[in-house]
Each structure stands twice: as C-alpha cells, then as structure tokens.
Specification:
46% helix, alpha/beta, three-stranded parallel β-sheet, 2 domains, three-stranded antiparallel β-sheet
C-alpha cells in the first residue's frame, strides 16, 4: 500500500497533469481572416506564429510536469525502500535462580505489537531460555548483516541489569567517582549473579559489547 505521505506528494502533480491534458489553450486555427492580400498574409503569419509558440509553451509545460512527477516517484520509491528493524529481548526467568523474579518476558508481546503499528517489519525476539549471551550476540550480528543504508533500527531489552568490573578502563575516562571502575551489563538467561565457575563475567552482556554490536548499523 502506498503511504499517505506519498499520495499527498503526488496528488498536485497528477491534478496539474490532468488539467493540462484536458485544457489545451492553443487549438489549431480553423479559419483565416479576409481582407486585403497583404493584411491576409500578415494575419496568417501572425496566427501561425502564435499557434506554434503556444504549442511550444504547452509542450514545455507538459515536459516540466512529467519530470516533476518522475522526481516525486523517485523520492517516494527511495523512502518506501527504508526498512524498520528491531531486536526485542525479554527475560522473566534465569538459569541462576538467585535473581529475583521479574516479568520482562511479558513486555515482548506489547513492544512487538507497538512496533508493528509503527511500521516495523523485521523484528527479532528472544525470550527467557532463548536469550542466552551467545544468542543475543548472534542476533546483533544478524541484524547488522541485514541492514541497509538508511534503515531504522530499534533495540529493546527488558530484564535484570548488574554492574561488573570495567576491564578495559574506558569508564575511568567518563567518570571521576566510584562509578569509574564499573561497566553496566544486561543479564542474559545464562548469566549468574555471583562470580564463579558458571560465569566469570563472560555471560554478562556489558555496555561495551552492546555499543560494539550497535556500531555495526552505522555507515
């Protein structure tokens, strides 16, 4: 279906084109004035010159309207090619039962419903057991590979978060307080609350990783 904005842009050009086709202000002369021979020849020459000038003007107006219509169609075609894409993560349970019970998984349905209403067509969702660290990272890569220049991207996460040790020192460049030693992190399904053999931090999805993943959508 052609978007309403495209129809609104095309309507003036279409109406002008129809008007010009139906209202030709330069009909070909069907009779010539009589009088003296010189006057007749002069009037005939003048009428013919006016007629051809009017025809040329009409031709140029039609060409202008046609080119204008083509340019609008080209712009509309380019706008219509933009794809709205999204990643939606929602977690209401974890592999590690130490995490408190939340209902982030319930958000997925409502977020997707809203995205559909806003014209998003490429929506990837991961809920609960689906939303492991590896699966979330793969979803970022897959989305980056599908994206084309000009696409619109939305990323949504509903779930637990946790501070974790900043191992590359980038936070110290942004903060001069106790926060400077911590990264923020999303908590995938297989991330654990306490450092140990099941998770030494590699299962957390830290803000640096989110930034690198989102960086794949820029051109």
């Amino acid at each position: 279906m052609i978007p309403i904005i495209i129809v609104a842009a095309l309507l003036p050009a279409i109406l002008l084109w129809i008007y010009i086709l139906k209202k030709d202000p330069c009909p070909e002369p069907t009779s010539w004035p009589f009088g003296t021979k010189g006057k007749i020849l002069a009037l005939i020459k003048k009428d013919k010159d006016d007629y051809h000038q009017d025809r040329n003007d009409m031709f140029m107006r039609r060409v202008f309207v046609l080119l204008f219509t083509i340019s609008i169609l080209s712009i509309a075609s380019s706008a219509d090619a933009v794809t709205h894409r999204a990643l939606v993560f929602g977690l209401g349970k974890q592999e590690d039962t130490s995490w408190g019970k939340i209902h982030g998984d319930n958000d997925v349905h409502y977020v997707v419903q809203l995205l559909h209403q806003m014209g998003y067509t490429d929506i990837k969702t991961l809920k609960n057991e689906q939303a492991t660290k590896q699966a979330m990272a793969d979803a970022f890569v897959g989305l980056a590979n599908r994206c084309q220049k000009g696409d619109v991207v939305y990323i949504h996460y509903s779930g637990h978060g946790q501070l974790m040790t900043d191992v590359d020192g980038d936070e110290a460049l942004k903060w001069n307080n106790s926060h400077s030693q911590w990264d923020e992190a999303w908590i995938p399904y297989d991330a654990y609350m306490v450092y140990g053999p099941n998770d030494r931090g590699e299962k957390h999805f830290c803000d640096d990783e989110v930034g690198r993943g989102a960086g794949g959508y820029y051109y």
